[in-house]
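Progress against Task 2.4 (sequence-to-structure conversion) is shown through the following example record, which the project officer requested during the mid-term review.
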Amino acid sequence: MHRLWMIFAQTVTVSVAILFVVSTLRPDWIGERKTPPAVTIQEAVAPGSVPATNAPSSYADAAQAALPAVVHIFTSKEVKTQRHPFADDPLFRHFFGDRLDNRPQQRASGLGSGVIVSSAGYVLTNNHVIEGADDIEVALNDGRKLSARIVGRDPESDLAVLQIKSDGKLPAITFGHPEQLRVGDVVLAIGNPFGVGQTVTMGIVSALGRTHLGINTFEDFIQTDAAINPGNSGGALIDAGGHLIGVNSAIYSRTGGSLGIGFAIPVSLARNVMEQIIQNGSVTRGWIGVEVQAITGELAESFGLPSSDGTLISGVMRGSPADRAGIQPGDILLAVDGRKVTDPQSMLEAIAALQPGRKADFELRRGKDMMGLKVEIARRPALSRGD
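Structure tokens generated for the chain above:
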């Protein structure tokens, strides 16, 4: 029995050795080995995750579509020279006469950018680019230089409209849809930074609806990290399709250069202002004549308010629409014509959107009582600080 067991063990050992040698040197003798199926990229994506999309490798088409409509704006204005302190002294004038009064006036120059928005030659830019200028020249992308006239300005939104005349065809940019804009979308900024020439920079939309920045009276900025520098003001912010979605307006900077925080006026606001300026020469907004204050937690507690919703009427101008309607200091404004008021900025925008001459419903809280008043809206005075 022992001998049989030894023969069996030796046979198994030799068989295993032969099988190992054959599988290593001639695996085809054994048969084709099946390999596990390859895992595709789509199969490797975890359930519920978003598969990667192919981003465009170039935005040249978008830039080429918008570049011809973006212009450089050069301005100049006369600056009064300071009068010599001894100019009125009789003894001084005896020796020097009127020579000090006949000194040539100095001229200050400035630069910025603009966007041709119509084949009729209308150019949209920032008000601060052309403010105070008595001579404005527009340089087109094709090298033409044309004189421009001011159609109208709106300092409260920092927008202005110019017009240029040309014998040739003027390129015009196409408007985009900023309401479809999302944080993270790719945008391009086009302008003339530091006067070096037309420049395109790329970034993304960092935030939407930026307000309370203290830049303009009416604010609803698109924030972007696309490089915007001095000279870019009034230039175009475009989407990946080359459509205008904003007018570059301001930057946050401690050095004067780009720190990755730039602000553009959305084209929806810019277009509304532009159309009013072209039609009427100015922008018409509603006004009732009140001073307002934000309701903090401390104020809400001191007034015994259930929440900090609304805005506090801190002052009423005598003889204003608010005064005639019976609004008093200390009232809490909660809604304007059905539009909820959450802070002073929302109240300002709600009233400004109303047509002068019409009566609007105002919802207020006076003490513990709720009340409604009808207020006849007046036209907002130029650069009014109240609402």
